[in-house]
Write a structure and sequence with these properties.
It is a single chain. The chain is an all-alpha fold. 57% of the residues lie in helices and 0% in strands. It has helices at 20-27, 37-42, 46-62, 67-80, 84-96, 101-109, 118-133, 138-145, 150-173.
């Protein structure tokens, strides 16, 4: 895995440079008086930001996936992509959705970590397979489809894709994690997780 930038390649747009359209958009994104760096960075392309937010809002707020399972998938993809910014923010969101600190550590460890039930292990395996091969294997699909309906299966695929895209943008633009958010366990991400031959 290439070292991620420790400074922004595309700096967040300072509030003093926001035009009236950006000010209006940013007011909807402000949390506790703060606009996160991801949004201030994408403010340099406001048309892209505005359209991306529609899809992002579906994945994060309108998805048919249970919140806990959605966050397991998002965190696993952030881990695989080495996107510490995504990881830090979704650790916080995941804990609000019911994930424990042990769950967070298991997400980093992968589907074979002790403590997962068979379905959640399959959920992590699906993300691993999408990351490695852009395809969910038949065995993993059957496990997911035993519980998930068609909308949920689609929402899982699109959540994995959304946060692959987000990870690419965060990493390549050098978006820096704000203070107060958790960093990767042991200070590193593993990006070499691939499905085992038994899962193919």
């Amino acid at each position: 895995m290439n070292q991620r930038p420790n400074q922004p390649r595309i700096p967040p747009l300072p509030e003093s440079e926001w035009d009236s359209e950006t000010i209006e958009l940013m007011q909807t994104l402000r949390r506790d008086g703060q606009v996160f760096n991801i949004f201030a960075t994408l403010a340099r392309h406001p048309k892209l930001l505005k359209r991306w937010l529609v899809f992002g809002n579906h994945v994060l707020s309108k998805s048919s996936l249970p919140a806990r399972e959605r966050e397991i998938a998002i965190l696993r993809m952030g881990w695989l992509c080495g996107a510490e910014y995504e990881w830090g923010h979704h650790v916080a969101i995941g804990k609000q959705a019911g994930l424990s600190s042990d769950d967070i550590r298991r997400i980093a460890a992968g589907s074979d970590a002790p403590g997962w039930d068979p379905f959640e292990a399959a959920l992590i395996r699906a993300v691993d397979e999408l990351h490695a091969d852009s395809f969910i294997s038949d065995s993993t699909w059957r496990t997911l489809a035993a519980r998930y309906n068609t909308e949920q299966l689609l929402d899982l695929i699109f959540a994995a894709g959304q946060y692959t895209l987000v990870s690419m943008a965060l990493n390549s633009c050098g978006v820096q994690l704000e203070a107060g958010y958790e960093r990767f366990p042991n200070g590193t991400a593993h990006t070499d997780k691939t499905p085992s031959s038994a899962d193919q």
